[in-house]
## 1
Amino acid sequence: MKKSMSSGPKLTSLKILGQAPKQWRSLEERAGSSDIETERRYEFPPDADTLDETSRRGFIHLMGASLALTGAACTRPNQKVVPYVKQPPEVTPGNALHFATAYALEGYAMGLLVDSHSGRPTKIEGNPDHPDSLGATSVYEQALPLGLYDDHRAKQLAHKGQPLAWRSFLAHIAGRGIELAKDGGAKLRFLVEPSTSPLVAELKGRVLQKFPKAKFVSFSAVASDGAAEGARLAFGKPLEARHDLTKAQVILSLDADFLTDGPEQVRLHREFSAGRTPSHDMSRLYVVEPCLTPTGTMADHRLRIRGSEVVAVAQAVLAELAKQPGLDGLSALAGLPRAQPQIRVDARWAAAAAKDLVTARGKSLVIAGRRQPAAVHALAHAMNAALGNIGTSVTFRTGVRHDALAGSEALRGLVEEIAAGGVDTLVITARNPVYGAPVDFKLDKLLSRVGETMYLALHEDETAAAVTTIVPAAHSLESWGDARGTDGTASIIQPLIAPLWSSVTEADLLAAFVGEGDRGTYQLLKTYWQRQATTQGWSTMPGFEGTWESWLSKGVIDRTAIAPETPRVDGGLTAAVGGLLSKVPAGGEIEVSFAVDHKVFDGRFANNVWLQELPHPITKITWDNAILLSRTTAKVQEIETGDIVRVEIGDRHVTGPAYIQPGHADESVTIALGYGRKGAEARGVGIGFNANLLRPSDAPWFTRGARLAKTARPRHRFGITQDHWAMEERQPAIATTLKEFESKKGEVHELIEARRRPNPVIHTPVDYSKQPYKWAMAIDLSKCSGCNACVMGCASENNTPVVGRENVRIGREMFWIRLDRYYTDKGLNDFDDDHLETITQPHMCMHCETAPCEYVCPVNATVHSDEGLNEMVYNRCIGTRYCSNNCPYKARRFNFLDYQDAISPVEKMHRNPNVTVRSRGIMEKCTYCVQRIESKRIDARVEGRAIKDGEIQTACQQVCPGGAITFGSLNDAEAKVTKLHEDERRYNLLHELNTRPRTAYLARIRNPNPELS
Amino acid sequence: MPALFRPRHNVMARLSLLVLGGGAAAGTLGVLGYQRTPMARGMQDPIEQPIQFDHRHHTRDEGIDCRFCHTTVERSPHAGLPSTQLCLNCHSQIWNQSPLLEPVRRSFIEGKPIVWQKVNDVPDFVYFNHSIHVSKGVGCVTCHGRVDQMPAVQKAHTLTMSWCLDCHKNPAPNLRPTEEVTNMEWQPEKGKEREVGEMLAEKNQVHTRTSCTTCHR
């Protein structure tokens, strides 16, 4: 078979079409690349069904051996049944239990409900009672089970390479403590993970009592120090902002990817999506950002600009605001000289955004991103204050996080102390600081100057290699603990399983320094909260047990939310911001911006293969990071996608593959953090390249003066899914503007109408209206940002395997949901970066009533249920793949290899026992989570009632932060899904094929400002 | 020289073709048929359990209901095997010196579960659920046979898919009042079997479910 993709796509040799396709997924597709054409000619990409590296002779050997072995395999397996010795009263074998707990990322709690099968946590859901979850989660929480059952975790406490028991280690710390206490702990330092935990705060206090001269420094490689510093400038103290999009009708995002980044992302996504139902009070989103993000794809107006120039837009909008009546308070700030006078900000854009913000005064919001410097945050706060948004769409609190600062500035002091030889004992609980710290700190070398370094490590990573003592950390799902949400609401983190390997928590390690390391976190935690409950009057001493149980079962502790403050803008703001603005870098060199990765975060999830294989929400790259750059910059630098490029800033450099990203700012490149790991975690090592090697401490997010040089190395072949499973330019994802939608005229209106009216038929379709249920789904594209949570939730629920980069390259990826991402633009031959519109479309089996896959299966392995589900019967499947061939939606996935047995027994523990594990040669696809349907059906029928609407949630629906997916029965006229199927925006995908899909889509409606059209 | 092949050779050739074809067909049918026999389904396999537990004695002599030990049968996919503690609730009082019960006592003291051999086993891709069957009036005896007459539990039915489907297509003959599910001897009134079955199907809201995903997910 022709290996058409082997040399990678060639952009230079493309034929230029007169008319660009309306929607396109990649530059190659837009330009009509012959490679794409070749790929589409086959059902599977050309390499997918070739055997890897097996000769004909080897194949016959294997066939012969397997034939011989079939004869030997004819004995009945001897199954065992093992009852409990003492059955816990709450356990019913066969039924899952659900426990409320929380997961703290960057210190902030995300409330979770975890399914536990016979003591084995398998599936994570959001806790509807938790203020930051509201029942959904982000991708990171969905992938937690795999992180728990990770065979490569740190397992053995070791001091200078010698294994040590926890008790011996405690004795060692006690001895060390006596020595350290002599000078009040002057040489004792703690480098800790940013935290909100009340228990850890108390322990830190007690450690400081015993060692008054010791110090705690918080550090995270992706900390948002600009936000804390900006609030300090604006209000005099580093308040934490919390946003409320239910009260925001006009939103201006200054490089804030608030839908898929940060501790508020899940709640903000829910609130934002709720405001996107087309109506007169639909919200409007302006986004300014350097590289396209999921939030950027939802924008009604998007400006692409280099990250360090976002401040210019902020100043331009502020200047326009100051012209409006009643906002003259801003005139002093508006009078400041422009930081980057050479930057031309689209004045019409700034004026329109400003006018909109003023019109929605009190119901608007300016939100700055984590990467932006203090000046931008301060300007945003000033604008919000002037617009009267403080107290409505943004509130401020203090005391949620222990330390306001956790970035490189916080670390600098410690680094200087170590360099000066002032640190003798360093306790590290921050996640992998050697990897994440700014490169100029040279932390790995410095650590050798410290007498003893103890590292609480989940993995034996880069930091573990540089310390004297490795203390294995317990995974969140095996630890007791507590953490606060963004409004201060505390949650108890309760373990779902005893530690798989002997490990301790951060609280245990800190308690060891006050002589309580053997008490265990549970005792410490309960004592702490008992004291809180009794002193606050929440419960009496004897009644505490009941209160504690109610906290555990609800997952949140009532009355622990911190009341918002009403800060006043500080008088010295103008002068302070003026000072900062004068230091903003100018100049036209190439800028490197660093991005928090949507998959591995700061690198802490690098060993999680689910996240590694997840296609990036925008680029659709798996198992890699890349140097993202705009097409214009690429042309200037003569770089094409896949070229190996060396990025140099001064004496620092990294080398990695380039990727041309539509909608990227010019003269700038974006690199995701978290790759190029060099620890001992096995899976994440060697994937991508380490962008931290370019990050200086004084400019952790945007740094100027880069030179790009193409190397002579052969092009990189990304494991990239964006052109896989194409539906051949049929404009599958429909988007239109509110104005056009309401006029009920025009091209898009006709398109929607054409895709919903009944098709002519020559036979009467099966009538499902007499069945008790007629399962169906509706997906609202207005609410989907492509955040990937559904993909991860589906993989976790349905035991879909991971195949690895090589297999993704040749089109063998197995995730049942794919998030198609389509671009549209107004350009002709060359695409127009400035008028790029992006839309994402979750895509899985449509459960067609007249399913094309069913007619072609020779063994009836895919058939229809009485309720119209398109069923896949694994035990009948013989792997002809005809069904996938005939599926117009390309929703079927084939097990080309035995992926499921390639993982270790510990890793297999994440599997859902209610879903069959498929082996090689089996076709599979979305089942509408039929295991959930059947389990609820049984519950309902045992109780002798019908299934209620909303009782069954598919895994993707339950986890969706935007609430874009709805599932239910069309035979229930009152069901939410029925209402959505009757919605004016509803259309069927590939309707002209008359497949009668049960999954319907609702067109995305944008709400652009008429003044900018 | 006489002909190499005589007319009788034609007959022999035809016969051998017949035997070959017939043999192949008979072989295939034989394998298929054999798979449906009690022997192939393991119904006559002697299964050695760690304890010589006698259902006859417990259910008939002592009159203990199935659900006393199989506690989760009404609310879980699994009927549930009694925990060691449940055994000892009685056997700490009676027969507490019996050498036959030594493994039970040892299990309790050592905290190690008793490992039983599974008798009625369905493949892993079959998601059988006890609670729904019991709540719709399918008796224990229907699938498990006269456990009350078994000194050691044996498989009573083939548990093949077609055996399951016989009932899933036409459940009425196998239904009984829900309060009689554990009764091993309940019989519908003679001559009125059909009416009773249909009445029970109506009363218990029994639906015939034969879609693949009913059992395979």
## 2
Amino acid sequence: MVARILTIVGHSMEPTIRNKQRVVLLNYPFLKYKVGHIVAFRYKGKIFVKRIVNIENGLFVLAGDNVSSTYDSQHFGPLSKNTFIGRVFV
Amino acid sequence: MQKLLQILEKTTGSEIAYAHCDLPCGIYDPYSAQLAALTVIRMMDVIKDFSDHGHVDAESLQNLARAVEIKEDHAEKVKHELRVIWGDYFKSEHFEKYPQLHGLVNEILKLGSKCKQTTSREYALQMLAKVNEFTKIFWETKGIIVKEVTYPMNPKEKVWLPEF
């Protein structure tokens, strides 16, 4: 099992996660991802944090909780589980 | 929980994770800035109306405070929207083709500040005119023609909109 601390930069997950808030990232073999889970994933070399809002054909649709300040799967499409680096716990 | 994580962080370290909108979504549109600029003009008019009629009852004062807040927020929104498009969308080839862009954005940012500091309708009109100029350049870079229309609601000012 891997546990890491992430420091969040940005407002797209407010009010669940505030800018500069620390969260715990967990990853372990056979970790399941379900709708409602907050996940961290790699995109263009950076780590991003969003919530799973739907699963379509094995791909994950992600969105920020702060709908007024987020770009998400509506813009970059659903992502594969391979991009995920773990679940985020607040 | 946060204090515990901060203590743990000192020994384990932490990584930055982003929860912002800097993913390269490729969707940019100065319309939000135009709408915000129109809102600033409208709020200038509303504020003047309170002043002209000398309303001092509690409800009027409350609405006046709200109008001022909306004016401030939308002037800041104009600045934010412009900064994002200027910084994230425009590339060096655009700046070569439109050498006036840097100066234009700078003027808009300055006018945004003036609109926050004052109740001058003239500053707000100048800001909208500059945002329209910026809009025209933006759509030109995408090969899309814009046309001038009169916004149908108050303050009924001219805006440049793309013809999709």
